[in-house]
Amino acid sequence: MANITVHINGVAQTLDVEPRLLLVHLIRENLSLTGTHIGCDTSSCGACTVLMDGRSVKSCTVYAVQANGKEIMTIEGLAQGGLHPLQEGFKEEHGLQCGFCTPGMIMRCVDLLERNPNPTEDEIRWGISGNLCRCTGYNNIVKAVEYAAKKMQGAEVPAAETVA
Ligand code: FES
Ligand code: FES
């Protein structure tokens, strides 16, 4: 067993883990944060995407021990006193369909907008190309990211309900 400390959604968690344990299993099974999903186990779908030190990673491709000392953010940590602009965008632009791929898609887009605050449609489509949505054709997801980009730059966008 390996003793690791992971800062997850701002809270330090110290655990003993098997060296072979994947980060996605640490998140879901040891920490009960089930917003991060497992869609393929072959690093194809992106449903397991979380932020590690601010960068998106597919948590089914990372060992839990590699997260030792790192800051991990999951979808549960994103809304701070209200919806994140990306969560608002998915709501307002109907980017959310099944909900299975959405947490990973949103976490990927947090990283995308951090690196490129004003992406073109092509840049958004390229940026989310590692995340599979099997039902929407991506158009509303692209609109949701455009919504969030405008909102994060202070532009006027329709108001969304806040989290109760
Ligand atoms: S479960 Fe990780 S990429 Fe699909
Ligand atoms: S909205 Fe999740 S797979 Fe399409």
Automatic annotation (TrEMBL):
Its EC number is 1.2.7.4. One of its GO terms (molecular function) is anaerobic carbon-monoxide dehydrogenase activity. CDD domains: fer2. Keywords: 2Fe-2S, Iron, Iron-sulfur, Metal-binding, Oxidoreductase. It comes from the Bacteria. This is Carbon-monoxide dehydrogenase (Acceptor). PANTHER family: OXIDOREDUCTASE WITH IRON-SULFUR SUBUNIT (PTHR44379). It is an enzyme of class 1 (oxidoreductase). Residues 2-78 form the 2Fe-2S ferredoxin-type domain. InterPro entries: 2Fe-2S-bd, 2Fe-2S-bd_dom_sf, 2Fe-2S_ferredoxin-like_sf, 2Fe-2S_ferredoxin-type, Beta-grasp_dom_sf, Diverse_Oxidoreductases. Pfam families: Fer2, Fer2_2. Gene3D superfamilies: 3.10.20.30, [2Fe-2S]-binding domain.
